[in-house]
Amino acid sequence: MPEPLLSNADVQHPDGWLDAHWMAFSANREFKAAPRLIASAEGSYYTTTDGRRVFDGLSGLWCAGLGHAREEIVEAVGRQVATLDYSPAFQFGHPLSFELANRIVEKMPTGLNRVFYTGSGSESADTALKMARAYWRAKGQAGKTRLIGRAKGYHGVNFGGISVGGIVGNRKTFGQAVEADHLPHTQPPNGSFHKGMPPAEAPDGWKGAALADELLQLIALHDASNIAAVIVEPFSGSAGVVIPPVGYLQRLREICTAHNILLIFDEVITGFGRCGQWTGAAAFGVVPDILTAAKQITNGAQPLGIVVARQEIYDTFMEQGGPDYMLEFPHGYTYSAHPVACAAGLASLDLLERDSALQRVRELSPVFETAVHSLRTARHVADIRNYGLAAGITVAPAPGEPAKRPWQIAMDMLRKGYYVRYGGDTIQLAPPFISTEAEIQSLIAALGDSFNATA
Ligand code: PLP
């Protein structure tokens, strides 16, 4: 039996109490042998069931940048549950969803102004992909169905998302449901240690922005008349914060425009502040045709996803003809535009504005960048990448066990009171926007010690 990371002596439950919950994206056997139970959260800290404070170095799962249990969000959610806890998502509306849509549009790049609601990032990815196919059908080009993602891309876990997604471990167990191809990944070689956005052509021999031209090969192979959309994250989050080089997204945009292919940005991680802008699109200076987001919109307090489309896409659906009562886009979820989630979204937007949170991210980012890159000389560090308040550190693999060291490092950090994410061969960081400089420094110092202490 492995040593419990946190004492759960205070959790008085019969044997087998942990068995019924089949946990998501978790090593169930490992967890249940040594559970890590969180009792509460406030600001940038969790409190475990045995009373330890843990700094939230990933803002939950990249979603609680404003910190936990913010009074304004708590109040908005409570008030909304008491006023209108649910209203039918189909054929009915409630004022908050329209108010929130207008507020979201204000934050979007010009031209992205029609908001479709979902319940999560995965639902948003599949909605965007279906929207792209249906759009071309409505325009009389039903052959345009093929979808193109990117190696190491993550677009959630539904069938569309894993088909275009490029994290092999998430795909191979389930197969591919939708015809999709993948652009090569934008990751420079280990040891590049690029800060922020990498250069278009790097001296380390990496091809840089020319990678985007590989889309032309897929277009030559399939013909643009068969391709509906290209979907990418502005930077890949779950793959370990992989930042595309200068000019890469611009070139993708040019090629998509020239060949009548929709460009979708999955901004589930990059949206609503983490880049120091409202969107990665604004940070990178490229406007997609469709943009998805989730997570930070409600500060993680309620599940909510969005798909924001160009008006012409919306208008194409509206102009299909047929009777007024016909559904223009037969798609949606019971929890689309959930009133409580919309209330949380409005309260979060208020706080992001009132606290000048984006400005704070821009101020803290250089401090975070310098601190994170100071780990360059720590043991096992193979590469470091960062953008805004996000960073990925590639860990040199232990012989025969590529994923073991990141797990060991994350667990060591937890023992010391810091939560960081391990995924594949990386450690990932996304501290809250409200972090202090001292908290960033102590997070990184502790991480350096954990790397050095790992065999
Ligand atoms: N897309 C991206 C870029 C993500 O990072 C994630 C989750 O991390 C998702 C989609 C899936 O979101 P969810 O877990 O809310 O379904």
Q: Which secondary structure elements does this structure contain, and how are they paired or packed?
A:
Elements: H1 28-33, E1 38-42, E2 45-48, E3 53-56, H2 59-62, H3 71-83, H4 95-107, E4 112-118, H5 121-138, E5 146-150, H6 159-164, H7 168-171, E6 180-183, H8 214-222, E7 227-232, H9 248-258, E8 262-266, H10 280-284, E9 290-293, E10 305-310, H11 311-318, H12 339-354, H13 357-373, E11 381-387, E12 390-395, H14 404-416, E13 418-419, E14 421-423, E15 426-429, H15 437-453
Parallel strand pairs: 3-13, 5-6, 5-7, 7-8, 8-9
Antiparallel strand pairs: 1-2, 2-3, 4-10, 9-10, 11-12, 12-15, 14-15
Helix pairs in contact: 3-12, 4-12, 13-15, 14-15
Task: Please provide a written account of the structure.
This protein has two domains: 28-66 and 356-453, Aspartate Aminotransferase, domain 1, CATH 3.90.1150.10; 73-354, Type I PLP-dependent aspartate aminotransferase-like (Major domain) (Aspartate Aminotransferase, domain 2), CATH 3.40.640. The chain is built from 15 helices and 15 strands. With 455 residues, it is an alpha/beta fold. The chain is globular and about 65 Å long. The chain binds pyridoxal-5'-phosphate (PLP). GO terms for molecular function: pyridoxal phosphate binding; transaminase activity. This is Beta-alanine--pyruvate transaminase.
